[in-house]
Amino acid sequence: MLERVFLLLCFLPVLAAETCKPNTPNGHKVRLSIKTALGAEAYDWNENERFLFQSTMAYAMRNLKGENFTVSNIVVCDETPRVSFWFVVTSPNDPSKVVSKGEVEEAVRKSRNRINQAFMLSDSTLEFIGILPTLAAPVEPPTPTWLIVFGVVMGMVLAGIVILLALSFVQKKRKKNKKADVEEEEDDEGTQVQTAENGATRVDYYNNSFADDERFTHM
Amino acid sequence: MKLLLPNPELDLRIPSYADLERMEKETKDGPQWDNKAQYILTCVGFCIGLGNVWRFPYLCQSHGGGAFLIPYLILLVLEGMPLLLLEFAIGQRLRKGSVGVWRAISPYLTGVGIASMLVSFLVGLYYNTLIGWILWYLFNSFQEPLPWTQCPLNDSKTEFVSECQRSSTVDYYFYRVSLNSTTSIADSGGIHPPIVVCLLAAWTVVAICCIRGISTSGKAVYVTAILPYIVLAIFLIRGLTLKGAVNGIKFLFIPDVKELMKPTTWLDAGAQVFYAFGLAWGGLISFSSYNPVHNNCVQDAVILSVVTGLTSVYAATVTYSIIGFRATEKYDTCISDNILTLTNTFDLPEMNITSNNYEAALSSLNTSYPDVLPGLGIQTCDLQSLLSEGVEGTGLAFIVFTEAITKMPGSPVWSVLFFVMLLCLGLSTLFGNIEGVVVPLKDLKLVPKNFPQEALTGLTCVVSFIISLLFAQRSGIHWVTLFDNFAGSVPLLTIGLFEMIAVVYIYGIDRFNEDIAFMVGRKPCIFWQVTWRFISPLTVLVILVFYLVTQAQETLTYLVWDASSEMFPALTSVTYPSWIYAVIFLLAGVPSLAVPVYALCRLIFVCCRKHLF
């Protein structure tokens, strides 16, 4: 009995070493860009940070499957100065069995936010190669803003048009009444020539020489 | 060489000096300017339009930078100023709009006025469509984040829509969201509702500003003519504080003197001067006819020329400072992307490669791993090519500038300011346009005499709106380009030529000199005499002939944004279908031919009448 346990314990690290290597079928590559994300407050990648990663992944696996994943089930290897590494997840019941890629992906997706926050990083600075983050939907206000602005502008313009037309109508009426009063007082012959030359009050907006035109143009 | 064609009964058709003095003393019923400033501002607003912001800077940069200013300024003085004074003086003397003036000089010349009216109408149609697009962007600028910073997600929500992914958010927003453009002018694609709404807004704004002629538009120009200068100043200050602005200004103004040897440079400069001054549209003649008789039009012409020239240079500086900023941003992004790719591929520590040692690192990696590098997709980042990207016309305003604005902090404010400026520039040009359409309609007696001014303006705007629904189709952008290239080029040059011939050789240059002496107090000096008689008509004729020759030789093409083409995201060049030539003839040929055709018809009519009696 003791011998079997001893043998198993010896095999474990070997097994682990065999399952985790670059481009292993059930493994994932992780890449961290700490300096890009945090600048001056960047922390160094060391054993403690690796431990944090392992525990966060164990948490994610527990969240998904409910089994008692521990830190030793998350095997990390091939660390580079970039800060990138490969990891595989072994099953807690049978350390020789590796959890499938699909399940690991699902676990990461489910707890992505918590994993990011543990390292103070984001989807783009803590990358799981092969697991695409769900993109944020474009921000859209409930009523399209442009319709509101359009409504305001059109309202003002139409109100302006109505006011201008009303004003001009009132002005014309006043002028007509004034001219009618003036005509009654003055000499008939003189004013007839005057008004014939200047036309009706609506000529106000025509070019003055337009009236003279009639005398001169032959067509 | 005082050639003068016989022109009987001219004195009966035009007011004499005594008549003018009398009209001056009487209380005037017609429209008139409240003050001189209003007149100058209206003319400045008419001349300074969208072309000054998006055509001149492009011409400047593509024809040798600072060196382009030399042909531009020379032709401004030799071609633009004389024609300008000609239009001002003839309008002020004969006190009529464009049709009235030419009909007074000779009834056979009424065709010139009709041609001006047609050109003003056609140009007004597509110009207001541009205003509609500007309004669309303006309405959409009142939100944070701006809608052209985001791509929509595709159905599976894992990626952006492929068209947007492959090009850029601003391209996608302009060509797909705003216009939903089709890939060919023949493919109409149906009406695109947002553009209809914006066209409606554009035409109602124009209607309210022009509804009572210059009594309303004259008030509106205080805003529309002055605001662009203020906004340009704000953008200049903001632009100069951005990183990379100086690159843009250097790119613009570094002279390449070899370009001066090419005839196309001079031709483009001449054409630009012509269009920049709003000559031959009829609006300037109309505006001058409302002036007091003794207004100093010579001074006005010189002032306006100087202002237009300076504004073109000013706008070009601002534009290129912003373009320089955008190009530098893109260059930095390109370098950072490459650095990231290299760092990830070779698993180097972060910050090992920076923009300073990028070149050195790239070459050392290339020597160590020569077969890995080509497969990585490292882009070549070239600042010069980024500076010359898509910087003309609508591409400048709606793509390049909007992109630059998204990178400035507080982008909605800048966006609103920018589009309000473009709106003002376009509106003030349209006031002159509407004037050039409405006044001839009255002069030609096409409307009953007692028809109120408001109703005529309103009717013009309604009819124009309905016709401009052509541009609200999904293929609208191609129609706008077509109109831009053909409705406003050949006809204007032809009309300008006829105007000069009419005044100098049919009205009589001697009589014209005396008129100016009467109005201003001094005969125009030798400079004006030489330019009016020989230099300006010759320049316009040369430009016209060269233009016709070059156009006839090329197959006509236009650019489309086609996601299925290999050139995507760059625009693809497509040839026009054959029926387009009929449309081009309508746009360019009909106004140009209106002059001789009308003269011929009238000749036949008069001869027939004589024979019948």
The averaged pLDDT of chain A comes out at 76
Low-confidence stretches of chain A: 190-219
The coarse silhouette of chain A is rod-shaped
* Helix content bin of chain A: 40-55%
Overall structural domain count of chain A: 2
Strand order of the largest sheet of chain B: 1-2
| Oligomeric state of the chains present here | heterodimer
Based on helices, strands and strand pairing, what is the structural class of chain B?
mainly alpha
Distance linking N and C termini of chain B: 39 Å
Radius of gyration over C-alpha positions of chain A, nearest whole angstrom:
43 Å
The total count of strands of chain A amounts to: 4
Cα gyration radius of chain B (Å): 27 Å
Most strands sheet of chain A: 4 strands, antiparallel
Q: Which sequence of strands runs across the widest sheet of chain A?
A: 2-3-1-4
Biggest pleated-sheet summary of chain B: 2 strands, antiparallel
Tell how many strands the DSSP assignment of chain B holds: 2
Strand content of chain A: 5-15%
Let me know the average pLDDT of chain B. 88
Q: Considering DSSP H and I runs of 4 or more, what fraction of the residues of chain B is helical?
A: 55-70%
Q: Which two chains have the most extensive interface, and how many residues on each?
A: A-B, 49 and 62 residues
